[in-house]
Prior knowledge:
- The complex is a heterodimer.
- By secondary structure, chain A is mainly alpha-helical.
- Chain A has a single domain, classed as Histone, subunit A, CATH 1.10.20.
- In chain A, 67% of the residues lie in helices and 3% in strands.
- Chain A has helices spanning 12-22, 31-58, 66-75, 82-106, 111-120, and strands at 28-29, 63-64.
- In chain A, α1 (12-22) packs across α2 and α2 (31-58) crosses α3.
- Chain A starts with 11 loop residues before the first helix and ends in a 6-residue tail after the last helix.
- By secondary structure, chain B is mostly helical.
- Chain B has seven helices and two strands.
- The longest helix of chain B is centred in the N-terminal third of the chain and has 28 residues, at 2-29.
- β2 (63-64) of chain A pairs parallel with β1 (49-50) of chain B.
- Chain B: Keywords: Acetylation, Coiled coil, DNA-binding, Nucleotidyltransferase, Nucleus, Phosphoprotein, Transferase.
- Chain B: It is found in: Nucleus.
- Chain B: Pfam families: CBFD_NFYB_HMF.
- Chain B: One of its GO terms (biological process) is chromatin remodeling.
Amino acid sequence: MAERLEDLNLPVTAITRIAKEVLPSNTIVSKEAKTALARAASVFILYVSNQATTIATSRNKKTISAQDVFEALSQVDFECLIEPLQQLLEDFKSTKQQKKDTTKKSTPNKNTDDDVIDLVDDDMEL
Amino acid sequence: MSSSFNNTSTTSTEQNDSINKSKSSRSKDTHLPISRVRTIMKSTPDIENIGLPSLHVVTKATELFIQKLALDAFKLQKNHRHLDYNDLSRAVEENENMYFLREVLPKKITMAEYYKLIGKESSEEGEDNDNSSQTSNSSSSSVTSDNN
């Protein structure tokens, strides 16, 4: 839970950088537009996670999975985002697998611990 | 014995390098601070736990959303290369799937327009002031009438 109200804001510089990636290089983004984009992004996160929570609760799950997020996105009419995100999820899983493999190799004694991590990994809590 | 020890030490440094590489490539992919995204998600009512993969997906989704909103707004203004608040507000108005942002990024109006709206509202009781100003926007009027 956020302790201060500012904790719900996203850094404006990061938001601006992301927005400028798709805009022509000489575009000027006004200060007001930057804060508006940051605000919109915060609300978007709440909007999607609220939808994903509803989906997860309806299935008696306590942890929100990536699948719940995908379904939430399609429910709120943002199907266009799903395809690039699925690619990202695959990359994320493979880098995690890679990391796991390297830790396994470097510390062969802890093999049993790694196996346990394998089982819980998908429902990893934060 | 000593040779095998040397071997393991070199491989471990190589692995460390590869881990560092993958880390840097991932931080290039995502610009938004993941911990902040998690804080925002955690403030959703009834939320319990957020899986790490889903956190990454939401973070990236937010980035794509920002880019979509910025690009839509940019396409709406044609002459000058200057992205302003009103462009974003108009993009929100014209995209049905951004309806949830209408109260976050409302259209700016002048005081004269505001007084006109207030005057209209008092003369036509029960009418939503948005309806009177934006009769062309059918989707907004249909939803507001549902709410009423």
